[in-house]
Amino acid sequence: MTQPLTLRRDAEIAASTLPALLAKADHLASGVLLGEHGRRRAGQGDDFWQYRPMMQGDSLRSIDWRRSAKGDAQFVRDREWQIAQSVILWLDQGASMQFAGTKDTESKASRARVLMLAMAILLIRGGERVGLTGFTLPPRRGEQQILRLAEAFSTDDAQDYAPPEARGMIPHAKAVFASDFLGDIDAVEAALAKAADRGVRGVLLQVLDPMEEAFPFEGRTIFESVGRTISFETLKAKDLRDRYLDRLNERRDRLQQLCRATGWQFNCHHTNESAQSALLWMWRAFDGGAAR
Q1: Which of 30, 68, 141, 202 has the fewest beta carbons closer than 10 A?
Q2: Please, how many CA atoms are within 13 Å of residue 211, restricted to the half-sphere of its CB?
Q3: Running along the chain, 292 residues long, what does each successive block of 10 average in pLDDT?
Q4: Which listed CATH number (1.10.10, 1.20.120, 3.40.50, 3.30.70) goes with 17-37+83-290?
Q5: Selection from 223, 217, 31, 229 nearest residue 121 by Cα
Q6: Where along the chain do its domains lie?
Q7: Cα 63 to chain center, whole Å?
Q8: Beta bridge partner(s), residue 266
């Protein structure tokens, strides 16, 4: 049975991470220029978007006579599309995400949390409903939902590699998945296949530490999973480098193939790179391809 003092201490430690996470994510999101909304297109709504020449199929009622009187052509006044979408997020909170190659490098988990929460902030403040895959936190609007997401992202999973949560896929919703994707690839394939069956498209962001790409090990080395469930010792680590890098490239190729087959978009981000550049890629990919 958990003692009250232990429970309170654990709760305070967990809660103490929320303000810092929220502040970092909010600062990162503020660097993306949204305007009123990042995905501007014609449709039902009250806000003016643009004038365009009248085309076949437009009704006479849609003509803006004041604008048309300035020239010989007839112009239609388009209004901005304002139908909110549901966006579902999955963040890998497995132990492998806790890895950081050096003391000066941010862990994969820390970087992924900030990026996912910043993306959620952009979407929610753009009018979308955002939640998690599964059934614990369905998509909602509002600042309170940002707090709920921050709290959900602040927990860790004890298992080494957490498989994607594929339940609760809302038909025709959009999605963002973030992970190192170094675990069971079959689970990723099953999740994306299920998403595709329900008309869900999205963005797959692989987050890696630069050391995982460089493999700078030589001589006697003990490799151990972050959760300490797997351990491997070798006397010639350098001899494993080529095989390891081949496997890593094969994994990236497989993820890219899965995304192409299911209509998703893929990117690999390293923790020593700019977080803002990764967020901008996610936003533009979500806006320009996956969210269409």
Answers
A1: 30
A2: 12
A3: 53 59 85 50 47 71 78 70 74 93 90 94 88 92 91 87 89 94 95 94 96 87 74 81 92 96 96 92 73 46
A4: 3.40.50
A5: 31
A6: 17-37+83-290, 48-79
A7: 41
A8: 204
Copy the structure tokens of residue 161.
């590699």
Residue in the structure block whose two tokens are 């209004």: 79
β-bridge mates for residue 270, sequence order:
208
DSSP notation for the chain: ---HHHHHHHHHHHHHHHHHHHHHHHHHHHTS--TT-SS--BSSSSSEEEEEE--TT--GGGB-HHHHTTSSS-EEEEEB-----EEEEEE--SGGGG--SSTTSPPHHHHHHHHHHHHHHHHHHTT-EEEESSSSS--B-SHHHHHHHHHHHT---SSSSPPP--TT--TT-EEEEEE---S-HHHHHHHHHHHHHTT-EEEEEEEE-HHHHH----SSEEEE-TTSS-EEEES-GGGGHHHHHHHHHHHHHHHHHHHHHHT-EEEEEETTS-HHHHHHHHHHHIIIIIT-
Contact criterion met (CB below 8 Å) for 209 and 196: no
Residue with tokens 């193939």: 257
d(CA 290, CA 175): 8
Q: How do 75-79 and 48-53 pair as beta strands? A: antiparallel
Question: Are 122 and 282 within 8 A, CB to CB?
Answer: no
Quickly tell me which residue has 């992924």 as its tokens. Answer: 112
**Do the beta carbons of residue 187 and residue 163 sit within 8 Å?**
yes
pTM here is 0.76
Phi, psi at residue 208, to the nearest 5°?
-130, 155
